[in-house]
Specification:
Layout (H helix, E strand, L loop, with lengths): L3 H55 L2 H15 L31 H8 L5
Length: 119
């Protein structure tokens, strides 16, 4: 005949085993997710490296000179004048950098926002 203590200990042991298994299963799922994300990051890094190499190849000056010589008349290309280039300080401000003006609210807007009129 099992005593009450034996039954309680069996229940506690079963609960502990269940919690342990659940934690282990979640950890394995998270580990698999981390591995998948690492693989995706590696793929993106490799893609970026490949695109940088392509860009370096496509922007080689001697290649561009050959293309200009070959298609210059057809595309009606001309050299850019130095006066057509702008320095960064000559560019207009970004909208986000403009000074913010205080917007004065009227009594109705104050009433809507706070429920009372400010004087």
């Amino acid at each position: 005949m099992l005593r009450t203590l034996d039954v309680v200990l069996i229940v506690v042991m079963t609960a502990a085993a269940t919690v342990t298994y659940t934690i282990k299963h979640r950890a394995e799922n998270i580990r698999d997710e981390v591995r998948r994300l690492d693989a995706n990051i590696k793929l993106e890094e490799d893609t970026i490296d490949l695109l940088k190499a392509d860009w370096a190849l496509l922007t080689q000056p001697n290649r561009l000179e050959r293309l200009v010589a070959q298609y210059g008349e057809e595309l009606k290309l001309s050299q850019t004048l130095s006066t057509a280039l702008a320095r960064p300080e000559e560019l207009p401000m970004l909208t986000s950098q403009l000074p913010q003006e205080e917007v004065k609210t009227d009594a109705i807007a104050d009433l809507i926002k706070t429920g009372s009129v400010k004087n």
